[in-house]
Amino acid sequence: MGTHTAPRDEHLGHVVFISAAAAMGGFLFGYDSAVINGAVTGIQKHFDVGNGETAFVVAIALLGSAAGAVVAGWLADHYGRVRTMLLAAVLFAISGIGSMFPPSIEVLGMWRVLGGIAIGIASVIAPTYIAEVAPTAYRGRLASFQQMAIVLGITVSQLANWALNQAAGGESTNHLAGVQAWQWMLGVETVPAVVYGLMALSIPESPRYLLSDNREAQARKVLAEVEGADVDLDARVAEIRRVLNTEHKPRLKDLLGGRFGLLPIVWIGIGASVFQQFVGINVIFYYSSFLWQSVGIDESNSLLISLSTSIVNVVGTVVAMLLVDRIGRKPLALAGSAGMAVSLGLAAWAFSFRHGTGDSATLDDAYATVALVAAHVFVFCFAFSWGVVVWVLLGEMFPNRIRALALSVAASAQWIANWAITVTFPNLSDWNLSATYVIYACFALLSIPFVAFCIKETKGKALEEMG
Fold first, then answer.
1. Which of 34, 27, 16, 308 is nearest to 152 (CA)?
2. pLDDT above 80 (res 206)
3. What pTM, to 2 d.p., does this model score?
4. Residue ranges of the Major facilitator superfamily (MFS) profile domain (predicted)?
5. 21-47 burial by CB neighbour count: b if 16+ within 10 A, else e?
6. Which long-range contacts (CB under 8 A, 24 or more apart) does 197-203 make?
7. DSSP letters along 255-278, please?
8. What counts of helices (H) and strands (E) characterise the chain?
9. Contacts of 371 (CB under 8 A, 6+ apart)
């Protein structure tokens, strides 16, 4: 093995910047996926549609995300990591403008799919790129930039939604400068999309991609910049080359093997991705304004609650970033699973006291308080554990020869699971909100034996040692 020395401070600053630039895709991913939360009520009123059509428009972006995640690995291997980021930025910007002025709900769905493809690409390319440029000693913390960017994107979108809703007098269908508030909510995304594109232009290509493209001089320059002057460049280049030479461009058949079709490690990646979504985390971020309105809280206050859960999400993510390289991936995931199971169970209990249905539903103050506290505790437990750990693991756990492709497959599974939760929630909550939360609590419980028996700790290992 080559030497893996920690970079000196000036190099670390550079690595932090390029990791943050790559993670800007995560910011857009968080912003785009959660901004719909504030616009849901406005979309329902403007197009005069019910829960079924609304769920379709919210969830359809996630099918685009699954498609984007599938092609991201191929794009990254053929055109490089940076060009793939630029493509995602352009798609984000086009989607934002299109979503702002949809003539019909079907056309809005089409623009949401395009934004979803960009999200899927960004969700794969950022952890791949960060894992490839980050020095081993800091890789967990730098990989968690992706999740921090996602939660910041969610928070900024909720803040923008609330501010626009307030400016429009508390109704998302009211006009601001001749355009309805919910349209502004969807259109503002173009601004961070342009920032992402500019930041992508300012970062170096991944040394692993450069070596695979026979650009050794550039790869050495990047390695020296990110790993510091003390690194043995000959040894690092030889190490990466040895790994590249023993691998070939991964094809889907390379992921096959084992008793159930795919390699066990790929199934574990898919399992981690599915559990991350099946606890119902994105119900909070896509539908929380709808959720709180369904228990009698008005639109303006429900958006304020959405903002507060987003802030808790940021705090939990900071905790994870501080701990992921210190105590490891598994302990964080186990602690989070236990906390999520308890808080989801409490929320289910509180929601069982809901009176009435639809717009007339109410929840007594005491139970509403329990539900609110439980929701915030749930978000915190998710944020300090599964939110960060899954993305860190997906960037690390696969053998080099299949990493990009296996990550694409696992991320696609995540988007499909996310879609399944998102598209079913409005109808499930109409059926029985409390039982819906019992289902999410059961998945949180099941994730405990999954982590205990299936996940291997990756803390402190070089990427070349995986698999």
1. 27
2. yes
3. 0.78
4. 18-459
5. bbbbbbbbbbbbbbbbbbbbbbbbebe
6. 197/86, 197/89, 197/90, 197/93, 199/20, 199/21, 199/24, 200/21, 200/22, 200/24, 200/82, 200/85, 200/86, 200/89, 201/82, 201/86, 202/21, 203/17, 203/18, 203/21, 203/22, 203/82
7. GB-STTSB-HHHHHHHHHHHHHHH
8. 17, 2
9. 295, 346, 347, 350, 351, 363
Q: Average model confidence (pLDDT) for the chain?
A: 85
Q: pLDDT for 358-385, tens place per residue?
A: 666 677 888 888 988 999 999 999 999 9
Q: Do the Cβ atoms of 277 and 413 come closer than 8 Å?
A: no
Q: State how beta strands 179-180 and 175-176 pair.
A: antiparallel
> What are the C-alpha distances in Å from 398 to residues 78, 122, 313, 448, 462?
20, 19, 27, 21, 12
Residue with the larger pLDDT of the pair 454 and 443: 443
| H or E element at residue 293 | helix 281-293
Give the amino acid at 23.
A
CB burial of 125-146 (b: ≥16 within 10 Å; e: otherwise) equals bbbbbbbbbbbbebbbbbbbbb
Structure token pair of residue 424:
């079913």
Instruction: Give the tens place of pLDDT for each residue, 266-320.
Output: 899 999 999 999 999 988 877 777 777 777 777 778 888 888 888 999 999 899 8
Cα(171)–Cα(112) distance, rounded to whole angstroms? 22
Token pair belonging to 97: 């403008």
Q: Are 125 and 88 in contact (CB under 8 A)?
A: yes
Alpha carbon distance 25, 31 (integer Å): 10
Cα 29 → chain centroid: 6
Distances (CA, A) of 30 to 116, 172, 176, 239, 436: 11, 21, 25, 35, 24
Residues 6 or more apart in contact with residue 442 via CB below 8 angstroms: none
The CA distance from 347 to 314, in Å, is: 21
Place of tokens 């958006």: 303
Length of the chain: 467
Provide the 10 A C-beta neighbour count for residue 359: 8
10 pLDDT above the threshold of 70 = no
DSSP 466: -
Say if residues 269 and 409 touch (Cβ distance below 8 Å). Answer: yes
Q: Is 175 helix (H, G, I), strand (E, B) or coil?
A: strand
* Residue 24 tokens, joined: 């800007």
Task: Tell me how crowded residue 422 is: count the other CB atoms within 10 A of its CB.
Answer: 26
pLDDT band at 2; cut points 50, 70, 90: very low
